[in-house]
User: What shape does this take?
Amino acid sequence: MYAESLQLLWPFLVFVLMLLVIGIYCLFATLNLIRALIGVEILIKAVTLLLIVVGYITDHVALTQALVITLIVIEAVVMAVSVGVVLGIHTHKNSLDIRNIRNMKG
Amino acid sequence: MFLNIIILVALVLASLWTVMTRSLLRSGIGLALTSVILAIIMFRLASPLAAVFELSVCAGLISVLFVSVISLTQPYSQKEIIERMKLMLVRFRLLPFIILGLGLILLLIKVNFDLILPIPETERNVRNLLWNFRQLDLFGQIIILLAGAFAVVILFKEMRKNVR
Assistant: This one.
């Protein structure tokens, strides 16, 4: 059963890597803060998918579900705080362009 | 497995659309769509509780957060959006080819894992596992939620001061 399960792993890993590349490319290529947050979200989705797949293959579904629930809670909190920071930057600078906040120091 | 592959392709296409679409609002909607497709995969991989969380928190709450922040900021006028989108399309034009190339290369490599897997878990009920064996996780979640709530309160307080 394990040998069959391990064969399942590679196709899923291919798509996990694709999602990771999409997220990293988005972070590098974008100049908009909200789009950068969306890139981070896609990276988190790739990690979530990896956890679920590994849990399914190793037959530790309950444990990985517990970890994913924790990850989702952390993701929601991080996004709420990041959105607050983005709104604060927009209030100060009236722009969401990353180039306009490069002069922020300390 | 064939159905799983179709759903995974849909997941990658949805995330590509999220990253490459013109308006930020559509990006937010695309992110919700990505979450929904991920929840479907979770259901298929025997993780229904995590799927429900993904559906309610990620596809619901976080999408609402994104749509709110986009409508609150409205960073550009319609004319600026069109100008910037042309620039963005130029910047993102390589991404579909990179993803397609990477997928083909990885599928051709086809690594076979020869791992020694751990023994299957004895506790199959996720609720029992979470409450009886992973209490520290729950404690950490409570602390993170409180920290997030305080951070948001402080951020909005600062913003209100600045507005005055």
